[in-house]
Amino acid sequence: MKPLMLQGHERAITQIKYNREGDLLFSAAKDSKPNVWWSLNGERLGTFNGHGGVVWCLDVDWQSIHLITGGGDSSCRLWDLETGKNIATIKSNSSVRTCNFSFSANQAAYTTDKAMGHLCEVFVIDTRTVDDSLSTQDPILKWEITDSKVTSMLWGCGDETIITGHEAGDLIQWDLRTGKKIHSVKEHTHQINDMQLSRDGTMFITASKDQTAKLFDTNSLELLKEYKTERPVNSAALSPILDHVVLGGGQDAMEVTTTSTRQGKFDARFFHLVFEEEFGRVKGHFGPINSLAFHPDGKSYASGGEDGYVRVQSFDQSYFDYTFDYNRD
């Protein structure tokens, strides 16, 4: 199948996400305008205009009513999805690096960078009523991160915990009732670039600069599986229907000329979830892949690259027919 090439950004893609139904695909980039697309045919529906610089992160609530974005202009913004209107702008002291709605979408969390004399902070806000009062409302909860800054974040099960991935490779689980640390693990040696939940929320996968992606149990943070590559992993996603994992990454543009000319630096790579073995690659991007997402039906996936393109790739029948050879006793 020929992929759909979505060209709507002038600079590198930072994050892409599907809504729950999978009919909409959202993309954020180092330009200031997040986009929304029809995932079926790649038609651009519109842009969300208001940020004053790079947009690092975005998330859509489960009813596809509101969008939350965070950017380098030190603001977290909430948008009306239907009209593209900026409903609320929450100012922060530094760049907003991550943002996520909780599963119920009654709350949202976002984190800020350690910069300009300010510590990295985690904020939790009430999003049951989204209007301009959010711009001035105090967060329900906030706490400072004194160690390495948060680079990725997820909501845990039942909206009771938040899991943060850090620059130094730590994973920390926080209790939302108290804002206190429940426990932490350090299975990565470098920055965690991305974290994505499995379909049922019981597991999540991390992508790290230490050239690995790892599968963890959401409740206990127990390490379950590890997927190794030869270059930094920027993003990893879990198939909702098969035991498959897709990884994407590659060296930074500045480092590419100093590495070997081996091909395949920017491929999307498919691994078996259980056996940790690579079984396929998809070429296409002209630079590192920065973000990956499986379509909720598992029949296609999207990738966003440093080249500014979003590619939507549908799977051929051979992908679904493929089976691993292993002995059943």
In short:
With 329 residues, the protein is an all-beta fold.
Structure, explained:
With 329 residues, this protein is mainly beta. It has helices at 253-256, 317-321; strands at residues 4-7, 13-18, 24-29, 35-38, 44-47, 55-60, 66-71, 75-80, 86-91, 96-101, 107-112, 120-126, 141-145, 150-155, 161-166, 171-175, 180-185, 192-197, 203-208, 212-217, 223-228, 233-238, 244-249, 268-272, 278-282, 289-294, 300-305, 309-314. The strands form seven sheets. Strands 1-28-27-26 form a four-stranded antiparallel beta sheet, with no helix packed on it. Strand 6 and strand 7 form a beta hairpin. The radius of gyration is 19 Å and the shape is globular.
Give short descriptive properties of this protein.
4-stranded antiparallel β-sheet, 329 residues, 2 helices, mainly beta
